[in-house]
Amino acid sequence: MNKTFREVHCGGSTKFRVRGCSNDRFYPRYHLAPPFGWMNDPNGFSEYKNEFHLFYQFNPNSSHEPGIAHWGHAKSRDLFHWEHLPIAMYPDKWYDKSGVFSGSAIVENDKMFLFYTGNVNFPGQIPDHEQIQAGAVSFDGVSVKKFKNNPIINETKLQPNFRDPKVWKHKSTYYMVCGNSFKDIESNTDLGRAILFTSKDMINWNFASVLDESDGSLGYMWECPDFFELDGRFVLLFSPQGIKPFGNKYRNLYQTGYIVGDFDYNTNVFTPRTEFIELDHGHDYYATQTLLDKLKRRILVAWLDMWEQSYPERRDGWTGQMTIPRVLSLSKDNRLIQKPVKEITLARGRHLYSGRAYFGTVVTLVDKAGEISIRAPKDKDLRLIIESDGELGKVIISYDYKKGLVTLNRGGKDGIRRTKWRPQKKLYLKIYIDASSIELFYGDGEITFSSRFFPEGAVKLRVGEKSEIESMEVYTMKRTTFVNHDCDETAVIN
């Protein structure tokens, strides 16, 4: 393979010198992914001076492991055309030397305030790590300066797993929700919970309440909590670790889901109205974060990957990507609805197909990126095959109308994900394919699947047996993201 060095300018005076090759086989065309190295949790999702900013957990030194976390950074005017910026935060303080872990951002008085978890490891000791909460500020949306008086929360009784602060402001008070694991005295087991702090100045924080906690069925740790008001209710969104699989539920290593309820800002008490509900039914969906934009949309993004996977992209010098940003709403029965943001139309390319479709209909996506919109009868089975070359390049999507089941099958061990769903009048389905990912939105967005797959060549959409589609629209999707062709070492130069 012919390898050459090239420089990638990423804003300001910082540039990345990377060793590249000509292989972009799995790199997304319109999803955000790292320019190189490892990406996981979205962080600091915010809107600053008419641009969206998204930070993320980033290892610039390897695509094979999360390593010691930095904060990567990108910005966009429309959530699809992303510009990579210099690394926002390095693990360069005594309180974050083992990782600048996940956190959030708020914007006030033309300043961007960042809040994150500082991680310090103690190899061979018990516990073997400690986690504190810290703050930072940016006056231009690019350069970041950590608070002089960090850490801002350092609670011994909450150690060792105390992380992922999400901060917002209500009236004159700042609120921070964090994930935590605590020892239940009766069962002598670790249980997850979401804890709330308040502050008047973003520096001095006071414990306010436990928003909710596991009763044993919701795992030993709650990561990446988010808490917000939506359509008259409050939503506690989080990623629990340690939930056991149950039927078609909780099939991934870790989950992401939510509890809907009521919240009293006077007492800081959250009263749940629902059980825990899994938010997505695919293989790869974790560590969600939301923002409220200037249009008052609650927009969500998630890591489109899962821990302890070994996907082939890492051999190409990068790992991880984000989901399509999604607007959230709440149904009358307190279920979250996810819809792609309207800006996704800016990523559309050529119109490939329009009309009815039957068994044998085939549409080819040469660049492996497309949007497919389907309307079909609600009282008939539906089967769609998304296929390409390679062992990991095939996905089968199906609806069984007698059982009321929708299924995504990407093959291999543990390849099936399914859930119950019945359309109201017609079966509506939107499918987004992007080089190494597939996202499904059923109905109005009440059911979603987000999974990775790895087509080696052009992708073909084929309508299966006994399937009748009343209307099918297919668009290609343009290359809107920075495409990096790494396959070897990377280094950062200033």
Automatic annotation (TrEMBL):
Domain Glycosyl hydrolase family 32 N-terminal, first and last residues per copy: 31-340
Limits of the Glycosyl hydrolase family 32 C-terminal domain: 380-475
GO-annotated molecular function: beta-fructofuranosidase activity
Gene Ontology BP annotations: carbohydrate metabolic process
Record's keyword terms, sorted: Glycosidase, Hydrolase
SUPFAM superfamilies noted in UniProt: Arabinanase/levansucrase/invertase, Concanavalin A-like lectins/glucanases
Any one cellular-component term (Gene Ontology): cytoplasm
Substrates-to-products reaction catalysed: Hydrolysis of terminal non-reducing beta-D-fructofuranoside residues in beta-D-fructofuranosides
InterPro entries: ConA-like_dom_sf, GH32_Enzymes, Glyco_hydro_32, Glyco_hydro_32_AS, Glyco_hydro_32_C, Glyco_hydro_32_N, Glyco_hydro_beta-prop_sf, Suc6P_hydrolase
EC primary class: hydrolase
Alphabetized Pfam families for the sequence: Glyco_hydro_32C, Glyco_hydro_32N
SMART domains xrefs: Glyco_32
Record-listed E.C. numbers: 3.2.1.26
Family named by the database record: Belongs to the glycosyl hydrolase 32 family.
Listed name of the protein: Sucrose-6-phosphate hydrolase
Organism for this UniProt entry: Parnassius mnemosyne
